[in-house]
Amino acid sequence: MNLQKVSQISTKIALKALHTKLNHIVLLVILLTIGNSFGFAQEFKATDTLKLSSGLLENPKNKKANDSIKKKKNILEGIVKMNAKDYEKIDQKKKQLTLYNEASIKYTDFDIKAGIIIYDYEKKLVYAGRLKDTAGNYIQRPVFTQGSNVVEPDSLVYNNSTGKALIWNSRTKQGEMNIKAEIAKRENDSVVFMKSARITTAKDIDDPEYYFYVTKVKFVPKKKVVIGPTNLVIANVPTPLFLPFAYFPMSEKSTSGFIVPTPGQNNRQGYFLQNGGYYFALSEYYDLAILGDYYTNGSYGLRAESSYAKRYKFNGRFNFRYENNIQSEKGFPDYVKSNQYNIQWSHSQDSKAAANSRFSASVNLGSSKYFRQSVNMNNVGSTLNNNLSSSISYSKTFPTIPQVNLSLSATHSQNTNTEQIDMTLPTFQASVDRVFPFAPKDGIKKGFFKNINLQYNVRGENRIRTADSLFFKPQMFRDAKTGFQHSIPINTNFKIFKYFSVSMGAAYNEVWAFNTIKKYFNSIENSLVAEDERGFETFRTYNFSAGIGTTIYGTFNFGEDKKIQAIRHVIRPNISYGYTPSFEKYYDTYAIDATGLTTAEYSKFEGGLFGSPGKSYSNNVGFSLSNTFEAKVLDKESKKGESKKVMLLNNLNFATSYDIAADSLRWSPVRMSGGTQLFKQKMNINFGATLDPYAIDNVGNRINTFNINNGGSLFRMTSANLTLNYSFSSQDGEKKTNQQNQQNGGAGDDLFGRNTDLSDTRQSLFDKKEDTKENKKTEWYSTKLPWDLRFAYSVTYNNSRRQDEIASHSIMASGDIELAPRWKVGLSSGYDFKQQGVTFTQLRFERDLESWRMSFNWVPFGTNTYWGFFIGISSGMLSDIKYDKRQLPDRVFQ
């Protein structure tokens, strides 16, 4: 046999499977030495020698005899791969195979990687260990992989005949648990015994923040961990906490099981057990958790929470919450009993699921006072929400020519202060895409006629307005209003004098109403009556509009050597005209007193879904002016002295109109609005004002006299407003969002505090950062303290009747600061200058050490006073190892 030195060691054998695991590697070694008949190559150093027994070589004279022997089945299960960076050496005298430096053996689901691997094929033992580098440090720790189980010891000895192994300083991960044992004994594929083991959920298994020191462990991969006497060690300091034994189920799949409730005490409900129940792992696509609360004064709560998902199809979650809240005791004057509920459903369809249709849902409805009176959850931001809203929609596009779009939707809007609910069940919309009847086939549209286009839209609604107390009761559906609106808009646009853009349009509308009214004077009751009538009625309207506008550019250059090199001003003036005739034919008269001599006009379509036809003749001319200001400045960060653009004013708009048909007060007030962004677009400033050209009389009513002719200025400011939002930090990061508050119907910021779900206090009070090298530093920050700050300022001025008052004036702020690595403090508060009082205030404190956390959350005053302290392990598997103490707010029942 010829020996040849090559640059890479690679051995592969493809044979039929018959037996299991590594106990046939010995056969492989024999084949490596004599396997000419198998057609493979082997590598050795030039100094290696090899002695082969002639009895093992094939004898050509016996070829015929061998051919007559019935072939046995191959005993190897699959391909065997062996690699080593430096060399592979076979010692026939010691019966050993040595793989040195980045050695590996891979066979079926086994994979061993180490600095050095020695296989004794006479004793059937595999030894894997580390190597020493030039500095004397151990490198290339062995990695033993079988399927999804990975063990990283310092060294190991494996018997490929019995399947047993002896492992020193093994490291393995099962689910959220990391296990390190001084000595581990592997009995077979499914049972491992360990001695002097550390069990932790910390990421750094060699230097964990905490661990459970266990003298004896029985470990069954993917099934269970049974441990003997156990002691909790924190920061390498043993604690008095001791367990005689423990059992941990291990599974890569979700499993059903009981959820242990949290005990506590509340001033108004007494002692309680919260968030206890059962978790159902129904399938890999959906699950269900049934949770409940019980209070010693008789209050209780029930919740059902489910999540579902299917890859490339959809995902969503559904929550149903019900609470029976009792305040005080029977016989006392402040005794109140109330039932509250809340339903949340979110559904999102994957964009790959369907090309021409889409279904989505975002539902948040229930009792108006649920978040204010709920004792289980301290959603502090949600208690201040004034609106709950929902939307369920389905849309379908038909790829025809022209294209047709259909959609069905149901919406819900609920004011939690007035307890008024507005719903559409459902809303139907359809549209036919824009058609250009006079455009040529080549698609080039230029001029008045070629740009004429029209489309068709239809909208149908079943709208309901009801109260919280009548929600989904028969009276709610009796008050529903139904109707359809058809519209055909016709438009065109073209240019004149090269620089002026002209647009013209007309619209035809037809309304089908199924709810109308009839007004008359009831002489018996001596009162006016507006009686609802059901039946099919229609009305038709039309209007005409036109507009002309242009864009003017102006640039003021100051020189390339200046800090501000140029300012660019863009002006967009526009004049519009609108004409709508009077539709008097849809109006009737009715008597307003018993004599019948005094009458008034009304339309039977008043209060309809799509309004009523206008009686007044409208002939308006509108004027608007839009401005933007942009500067070209020297870029200080540019090494080449380049310039950059800076937006000075995003918009500065003026708008008014003149009614030709009116007999007085023809000019409408001038509406001014503007906005800009400063400090690298971190500060948003928006302002607005209303300027009235007419004067008012002594009682505050507008009169047909210009204010300047009445001894005043050209315009009279009737109202103004200013809002300012600023978000900045020591590091320019992404904008924070309060997702739970958004889901409950609130804003995405935390100016009204961060929501804390008491059902899972392991959640952080702050936004989690990715584990980077910068975040893992343990030294003090010195003067570089990570922080972020958000604040909002708002002021409104009102002078419509010369009251000259500040209608509202407030400032709100929220900020977080990281005092040291993983030490965070946060504050949300504000001040109302109009009411002269502090707004909602919340203090947050947290100490996070990856595997466990400590937090304190405090609302010091107000209607939602609250404090809560928590310290425990972050892992869900060990979530019961905690100390949780809190004082819930005393809800006010109304």
Quick structural gist:
The chain has 894 residues and is mostly beta strands.
Explain what the structure shows:
The chain has 894 residues and is mainly β. Among the domains are: 1-146, no CATH class; 480-668, no CATH class; 683-758 and 781-848, no CATH class. Helices cover 3% and strands 54% of the residues. It has a 30-stranded antiparallel beta sheet that branches. β36 and β37 form a beta hairpin. It is elongated and about 125 Å long. The protein starts with 24 loop residues before the first helix and ends in a 7-residue tail after the last strand. Mean pLDDT is 80; it is low at 1-70, 72-76 and 770-783.
What topology does this entry show?
Layout: H1 25-34, H2 63-68, E1 80-83, E2 87-91, E3 96-107, E4 110-120, E5 125-129, E6 131-132, E7 138-139, E8 143-146, E9 149-151, E10 155-159, E11 165-174, E12 177-186, E13 192-200, E14 210-220, E15 224-227, E16 230-234, E17 237-243, E18 246-249, E19 257-259, E20 262-266, E21 270-280, E22 288-295, E23 300-310, E24 314-327, E25 336-349, E26 357-366, H3 370-373, E27 387-398, E28 404-415, E29 420-435, E30 453-467, H4 474-478, E31 481-496, E32 500-522, E33 527-549, E34 552-557, E35 564-580, E36 587-591, E37 599-603, E38 618-634, E39 643-659, E40 670-678, E41 683-692, E42 694-696, E43 702-706, E44 716-729, H5 739-743, E45 787-798, E46 805-820, E47 823-832, E48 837-838, E49 842-848, E50 852-859, E51 866-873, E52 882-887
Antiparallel strand pairs: 1-3, 2-3, 3-4, 4-5, 4-8, 5-10, 6-7, 8-9, 10-11, 11-12, 12-13, 13-14, 14-15, 14-16, 15-18, 16-17, 19-21, 20-21, 21-22, 22-23, 23-24, 24-25, 25-26, 26-27, 27-28, 28-29, 29-30, 30-31, 31-32, 32-33, 33-35, 34-35, 35-38, 36-37, 38-39, 39-40, 40-41, 41-44, 42-43, 44-45, ...
